[in-house]
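<amino_acid_chain>
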Amino acid sequence: MSVLRGFLWLLVFLLLGQAVMALFRLPMPSGVIGMLLLTLFFGYRGGMNPDVVHISQPLIAMLALLIMPGVVEIFFVAGQFADQWVAILTALIAGTLLSVLSSLLLMRRYLPASDAPGLAAGNAGHE
C-alpha cells in the first residue's frame, strides 16, 4: 500500500504541474514543474513523506532509462540548433553547476550529519 500512496503523491504533483503549465503557459515540462511543487511542499512541511521516499528509490535507479528518449531525440533535431552552440553550452554548464549546488544545499539541509557516507568512519580514528 505504501507504493501505491507514494505513486499517487507523484501523480498528483505531476497533474498539478500540468495544470500550472497550462494555466500560466509556462515553457517548461509539467514533470519539472510538478517536482518543483513537490519539493516546495515537502520543504514547507519540513521533511519527506516515507511513501514518496519508498517509491522514489526504484525510480532513481532507472533514471538513465527515463532520460534516454530525450537524449536520442536530440540527434534528429540537432541541425536546427547548429548556430546556437554557445547558448546551449552555456546553459549546460550553468545548469550542471546550479544542480550540483542545489543538491549540495538540499542534502546539507535535510540529511542529518550522521547519515553522510564516510563521515562516521572518517571520525572513528580522531576520537
